[in-house]
Hints:
Layout: H1 3-16, E1 24-33, E2 39-50, E3 54-57, H2 58-67, H3 71-86, E4 98-103, H4 105-109, H5 113-124, E5 131-135, H6 145-157, E6 160-166, H7 174-178, E7 183-186, H8 188-192, H9 198-214, E8 217-221, H10 226-234, E9 239-241, E10 249-250, H11 251-259, H12 261-267
Amino acid sequence: MDSAGLERTAFEINLRHAVAREQLEVHFQPLVDGRDGSLRGGEALLRWRHPDLGLIPFRRFLGAAREGGLLGELGDWVLRAACTHAAHWPADGMHAPLLTINVAIEQVMQGNLAERVQEALRDSGLAPERLELDFEEVVLKEEHSRIQSTLEKLDGMGVRLAIDDFGRGVSSIPRLKRYPLRALKLDPALVRDVGVREDAQAVVEAVACMANVLGLEVFARGVEGKAQQAFLCALDCHLQQGPLFGRPMSAEAFAAYVADPAKFTSAS
């Protein structure tokens, strides 16, 4: 095995022990109403504080986690940790902040996701209606009764269900209505090209129109500028997330932000 292979193997071995060694952290990125900037929730984002490499975002070790069969274990950890944090967020006016968590197809296929979610909600005290699970778009393409059953159980519990990064792949659009979904989250690549490429704007507008017909909310991730914000609001895509509104922050910093967004913004 060459040096690159040895490094990759060592990386994967260390990842397997990250939970036991308490090296994982959950950070949160604000989800806001693009019309007035008011906080509506936070997306849970997994981070690995590697002893040598520092803080590593999930996208950089997703491949290793997937290849090593670790997505179920890591997903369970994020679910429990994020629900525990969110249960202590203060309500922002009329809206108790929504917690959104990404879910991999592997977590669905292991067969006990609904039970894991129920346990996390019970142990944390978080109300089911304050939790949204964002599924990979691949769930729309897979034919498996386990997917249908799992989504129906979660919906029956009162948990919100959404499709993440919509528009990245070729979706099975009829299943958008077949499954108990409440929202679509636009692929950040589409949002990034709003105001730059006409085809991207056309796709975003088409998705927004389709979602409206199906009774689905549309969330936009990756919003970087005021022009994107205005274009999306004009399409009734009010729930937005991205650098324009705030980057991911530690659980402690996000809790302070939830308590007083204006003070946090002025302090930063």
